[in-house]
Design a protein that fits this description.
By secondary structure, the protein is α+β, with helices and mostly antiparallel strands. It has 13 helices and 32 strands.
């Protein structure tokens, strides 16, 4: 696959930020063990500049440690959020985060991750929620025999990572995915998906996108719908769409040259069902399920719950831009267009991304038939990733970690005066940012979700993009595996929701808890949030944007702000557990 050396790198820590040991395994069969940070630093410095270092979630953990133990080196990298995608010290080897190509845990991705062999000091009854059956045995004073056992585990993880990466990159390439770019392997699965899909669609993958086209599609682009319909219920039923976004990608999207229209021409285009993004003012009738999203613009209100650019679902009078599909759906269900003065219209539509989805899912089906569930899981990610790539934002973030005096022009220091981290922000529309296509496929997904919820007015419990929890059985459009059909996930009991992405229920004998931002959420953490307590959780290390170049533990706090009021997200809760949406008056007041 390469003419240079690949290294898989991993470290083990105590309490997240205290180094215990590390290891590296190379494609040449060499194994290195590290007992100190100085040994890690020396190893990296001596690598050939053509080499590559792989680490699973390295951009958010292992590479941050590597940067911290090489303070005299100048590092540069590209970041997404608070995590590095790739990075390298000037004149040294490239470091690549493999989760960007395989975004699963190492165990799930490879199917070969082993245990440490260490046993919890309390026989599995450890009070440390992060113990995982052995971590309470890991400390700077751990017995030498335990240290050696942990090192063996670390080396094994490196070997597994290296083998899986080489094997799977080659396998994806053999399966027709465009893995290479300019002599190297692409950094993210989204870039692989775009390079592959654009070729199948007959699109020039490098053709520039004009800002006008980008902004036209972006105006009608919204994310998934996440809302609580009822906060309490004794029972219900869970349904989840089989691959919502890949299904939407198999359907037509606008193609051709965008044509801005206004006035009567815009209204005629809508009446003729021309594909496009329509700017309108709409009266949404009183209902528990408004069908059009819109963005709030203005100062923060409602005790900070609603901030500028917040996505809302309200009744009353709203203005916005929507795909023809979604606007027509809302009119069909009682909304009234009060004015439609502008539209961006495309001359035709075609299912140009269907070949890519069908290719990925044919490979996935073959893997499942052969009992290769691991590979089927990988292919699912590659099928799903294209939808997000089509909505890629133009903001780019470059990272430079060096002494402040050595920072290049255009980089801004972030953090305290001694911080070594500098950021340069820029904007450039990517050739993959076909936002009008992204707006269309996400609109189809929201319409599919709403179509099911409408059949259960006042009896739906919760929705989240491609899943619904409802009080009654609904066998329409249900299939175990068919793309775009609803899969039945089973009966649930004792439903309790505090907010979007904060709920619990029982399925069989299992207590299912979802709490955004709370790692390994369980019944105890949910009960604490419900009681108004604040959770303080040690979780990972501080990301590259905020760590000032140091490797330090991150402590996050989580609380449920709506304990003492009648709000569930942006909806109002009634005494019986039902909820209602906000209402927007013609003069712009939300109540």
């Amino acid at each position: 696959m390469t003419d240079h050396t690949l290294w898989a790198f991993d470290i083990e820590t105590y309490n997240w930020d205290t180094f215990i040991l590390g290891a590296a395994v190379s494609s040449n069969g060499e194994t290195r063990a590290f007992a100190t940070g100085d040994e890690v630093s020396e190893w990296y410095r001596n690598l050939d500049s053509r080499d590559e270092v792989l680490a699973h979630y390295g951009g958010g953990f292992d590479f941050l440690y590597l940067i911290s133990v090489t303070p005299d080196l100048a590092w540069s990298g590209n970041a997404a959020g608070s995590s590095l995608i790739t990075c390298r010290a000037k004149g040294h080897a490239l470091c690549r985060d493999t989760t960007r190509l395989f975004p699963m845990s190492l165990a799930k991705w490879t199917g070969r991750k082993t245990s440490t062999g260490l046993q919890c000091s309390r026989d599995g009854a450890c009070k440390d929620a992060d113990c995982g059956g052995f971590k309470c045995r890991v400390s700077p004073s751990m017995p030498r025999a335990d240290w050696r056992q942990l090192l063996e585990y670390c080396v094994n993880d490196c070997a597994i990572l290296l083998d899986a990466y080489v094997e799977d990159v080659s396998r994806l390439s053999a399966d027709g995915f465009v893995m290479s770019s300019r002599g190297g392997i692409r950094s993210t699965l989204g870039s692989v998906a775009w390079a592959t899909a654009s070729g199948m669609a007959g699109i020039d993958a490098a053709k520039p996108i004009e800002w006008g086209d980008y902004n036209a599609g972006r105006a009608g682009y919204y994310g998934g719908r996440v809302e609580v319909g009822r906060t309490r219920a004794s029972s219900g039923h869970a349904y989840d769409v089989n691959a919502m976004y890949p299904w939407a990608l198999t359907l037509p999207v606008p193609i051709g040259e965008r044509r801005p229209t206004s006035g009567r021409a815009a209204r005629s285009a809508f009446a003729e069902m021309k594909p496009g993004i329509y700017h309108a003012t709409v009266a949404v009738p009183e209902t528990d399920l408004p069908l059009l999203p819109h963005r709030y613009h203005g100062p923060s209100m409602d005790h900070g719950r609603i901030a500028d650019d917040r996505l809302l679902w309200t009744t009353g009078t709203i203005s916005g831009a929507w795909s023809q599909i979604e606007l027509a759906f809302s009119v069909e269900h009682g909304a009234a267009i009060q004015s439609l003065e502008y539209a961006d219209v495309w001359p035709a539509e075609s299912p140009i991304f269907r070949p890519y989805v069908e290719h990925a899912y044919a490979l996935r089906a073959a893997a499942k038939r052969n009992g290769d569930t691991r590979w089927a899981a990988v292919l699912k990610w590659y099928a799903n990733s294209l939808s997000g790539k089509l909505a890629q934002q133009p903001e780019l973030t470059s990272i430079l970690v060096c002494d402040p005096a050595d920072a290049s022009e255009g980089y801004e220091q972030v953090g305290p005066p001694e911080s070594r981290v500098h950021i340069r922000r820029s904007s450039k529309v990517s050739p993959c940012a076909l936002t009008w296509c992204a707006a269309t496929l996400t609109a189809r997904a929201r319409v599919k979700l709403a179509s099911r919820l409408l059949r259960h007015a006042d009896r739906w419990l919760y929705c989240d993009t491609d899943s619904t929890y409802i009080m009654d059985i609904d066998s329409a459009d249900v299939h175990d595996s068919k793309l775009g059909e609803w899969g039945y996930e089973g009966e649930i009991r004792d439903w309790r929701a505090l907010a979007p992405k904060l709920y619990r229920f029982k399925r069989g004998e299992n207590d299912v808890v979802k709490a955004r931002g709370v790692p390994r959420a369980n019944g105890a953490s949910f009960a604490a949030l419900e009681a108004g307590e604040t959770l303080a959780i040690d979780s990972g290390v501080v990301g590259i944007r905020l760590n000032a170049g140091a490797f330090r533990r991150r402590t996050i706090t989580r609380t449920h702000k709506d304990v003492a009021n009648d709000r569930v997200g942006t909806r109002f809760e009634h005494a019986d557990g039902t909820t209602r949406p906000l209402h927007r008056t013609p003069d712009g007041v939300y109540r």
